Automatic annotation (TrEMBL):
Gene Ontology MF annotations: aspartate kinase activity; ATP binding
EC number(s) on file: 2.7.2.4
SUBUNIT field: Tetramer consisting of 2 isoforms Alpha (catalytic and regulation) and of a homodimer of 2 isoforms Beta (regulation).
Protein name: Aspartokinase
Taxonomic lineage: Bacteria, Bacillati, Bacillota, Bacilli, Bacillales
Database matches in PROSITE patterns: ACT, ASPARTOKINASE
Organism: Paenibacillus phyllosphaerae
Length: 417
C-alpha cells in the first residue's frame, strides 16, 4: 500500500467524460489498496475565461477580488470530481485549499505556501476516502484567500506530497511526460525517461509550461519523487529526480522558449558610478523582476543599456524609468515587444566548450539576429524576434541531436482544451 498524490491539470478534467475517466483512475488506485490525495485544476479554459470576464468589468481589477474569483474554478472541479468518484461506488471528500490546511504568505496572485497542516487530510484518508484538494489556492494567517500564480496547482500537489510524506507525486497532464522541447511545436521532440531537478527547474523557469517552477523547487528541496505522465494513456512518463542518467554525448537536454518578454532600452545615460544601482533599485522597489541586462559601449561619456521584463510589466517599467529621470539623466527610454527568449538547457554544458557558439551559428544561419544573450552553467538564452521562433527551435533541436526518428504521439488531444 502506498500514499500517492495525483494531480490532474485543466485539460485532463476539461469535460464530463474526462472527469469520469479521472474518477476511474483514482478508483483503480483505491481498489489496489493505495491511499490517494488528488489535486485538481480548474476545468479546461475556466481560469482564462474568468480573467476575460473580469477585465470586461474592470481592466485593472483589485488583486484580492481576482483571487476570490479565480479560486472558484478549482472549487467547481473538486466538487464535481468527488461526485464522479461517488457515482462509481467509492468514497471521496473535496476540500478547498484552506480546508486542506494550506497557509500562504499575504501576497495576492503569486503567494508562496508557508506551511501545511494536513490534519483533515489524514482524518479523511483514515476514514477510507479519496481526498480531493483544490489546486492553486491557499489562505493567509489573516484569513484572506490567495492564489499561487498561473500553473500553481503543480505546486499544491508537490507541497502536499512533502507535507504528508507521500511515496510519490504524479502530475497527470495532456502529454506523455517531459520532452526535449514542447512536443506541440516540434513533432520529433523526444520524451525523456528521466530528468534532474536542476535541469527541470531551469526548463520550467525558462518557459516549459509542463511543470510550475516552484513545484520543481519544492520537489528538490523536500526530495519528493515526482513523475509527469499523461492522463490519456497508461504510458510510463518522466521521472524527475536528483541525478538523472546522462545519455552518452547528450550535452543539451532540452530547449525552452518564453514569449512573455519585453525589452526596455535606456539610451544616452550618463556613464557614472551608481547609475545601474539607481535604475534597478527603483524597478525592484516597484516589484518589477528584471531578467537579462546588457550594457553596450560608452560613447562621449554616455552609455546605452537594455533589459528584459515580463510583458505585463512593460508599461510599468517604462513609467518607473521615466519617474527617476531627475535622478538619472538619459536621452530616451524605448520598449520592444514581439520577442521570444529561446534557451538551451543541459547539465553537461559546463564541461563542453562550444555549446553556445553552436547555438549562435544555428540561429545566424537561419538569418535571424540575436538581440540579447545570457548564460549560466547549465543554460544559454537568446532573445530573438518572435516570427522565426519555430524554425529556430527546430534548427537547434536537430543541431544538438535531440530529434527522434519518428513523429511522436504526445498522449493527449491535439486540439488543446
Ligand atoms: P496542465 O493543464 O495539465 O497543467 P499545461 O498546459 O500546464 O498542462 O502543461 C502541459 C503542456 O506543456 C503541454 O501540452 C505542452 O504543450 C507544454 N510543454 C512545454 N514544454 C514542454 C516540454 N518540454 N515537455 C512537455 N510538455 C511541454
Ligand atoms: N487554474 C490555474 C491556471 O490556469 C492553476 C493551474 O491550472 O495550475 O493557471
Ligand atoms: Mg500546468
Amino acid at each position: 500500500m502506498s500514499l500517492i498524490v495525483m494531480k490532474f491539470g485543466g485539460s485532463s478534467v476539461g469535460t464530463t467524460e474526462r472527469m469520469q475517466r479521472v474518477a476511474r483512475r483514482i478508483a483503480d488506485y483505491k481498489e489496489a489498496g493505495h491511499k490517494v490525495v488528488v489535486v485538481v485544476s480548474a476545468m479546461g479554459d475556466t481560469t482564462d475565461d474568468l480573467i476575460d470576464q473580469s477585465k470586461k468589468l474592470n481592466p485593472n481589477p483589485p488583486a484580492r477580488e481576482m483571487d476570490m474569483l479565480l479560486t472558484t474554478g478549482e472549487q467547481i472541479s473538486v466538487a464535481l470530481l468527488s461526485m464522479a468518484i461517488h457515482a462509481i461506488g467509492h468514497s471521496a471528500v473535496s476540500f478547498t485549499g484552506w480546508q486542506a490546511g494550506i497557509r500562504t504568505e499575504a501576497v495576492h496572485s503569486k503567494a508562496r505556501i508557508t506551511d501545511i497542516t494536513p490534519d483533515r487530510i489524514f482524518a479523511a484518508l483514515d476514514a477510507g476516502s479519496a481526498v480531493i484538494v483544490a489546486g492553486f489556492q491557499g489562505m493567509t494567517l489573516e484569513g484572506e484567500i490567495t492564489t499561487l500564480g498561473r500553473g500553481g496547482s503543480d505546486t499544491t500537489a508537490v507541497a502536499l506530497a512533502a507535507a504528508i510524506k507521500a511515496d510519490v507525486c504524479e502530475i497527470y497532464t495532456d502529454v506523455d511526460g517531459v520532452y526535449s522541447t514542447d512536443p506541440r511545436v516540434v513533432k520529433c521532440a523526444r520524451k525523456l525517461d528521466e530528468i534532474s531537478y536542476d535541469e527541470m527547474l531551469e526548463l520550467a523557469n525558462l518557459g516549459a509550461a509542463v511543470l510550475h517552477p516552484r513545484a520543481v523547487e519544492y520537489a528538490k528541496h523536500y526530495n519528493v519523487r515526482l513523475v509527469v505522465r499523461s492522463s490519456f494513456t497508461q504510458n510510463e512518463g518522466t521521472s524527475v529526480k536528483e541525478e538523472a542518467v546522462m545519455e552518452q554525448g547528450v550535452v543539451v537536454r532540452g530547449i525552452a522558449f518564453d514569449k512573455n518578454v519585453a525589452r526596455i532600452s535606456i539610451l544616452g545615460v550618463e556613464d557614472e558610478p551608481g547609475v545601474l544601482a539607481k535604475v534597478f533599485g527603483a524597478l525592484a522597489d516597484n516589484g518589477i523582476d528584471v531578467d537579462i541586462i546588457v550594457q553596450s559601449g560608452v560613447q562621449g561619456g554616455k552609455a546605452d543599456f537594455s533589459f528584459t521584463v515580463s510583458l505585463d510589466d512593460e508599461e510599468k517599467a517604462k513609467q518607473v524609468v521615466e519617474s527617476i529621470r531627475g535622478n538619472v539623466p538619459y536621452r530616451e527610454v524605448t520598449s520592444e515587444v514581439g520577442l521570444v527568449k529561446v534557451s538551451i538547457v543541459g547539465a553537461g554544458m559546463v564541461s563542453n566548450p562550444g555549446v553556445a557558439a553552436k547555438m549562435f551559428d544555428v540561429i545566424s544561419k537561419l538569418g535571424v539576429s540575436i538581440k540579447m544573450v545570457s548564460t549560466s552553467e547549465i543554460k544559454v538564452s537568446c532573445v530573438i524576434a518572435a516570427e522565426q521562433v519555430q524554425d529556430v527551435i527546430r534548427g537547434l533541436h536537430t543541431a544538438y541531436g535531440l530529434d527522434t526518428a519518428e513523429q511522436v504521439f504526445v498522449g493527449g488531444p491535439q486540439d488543446r482544451r
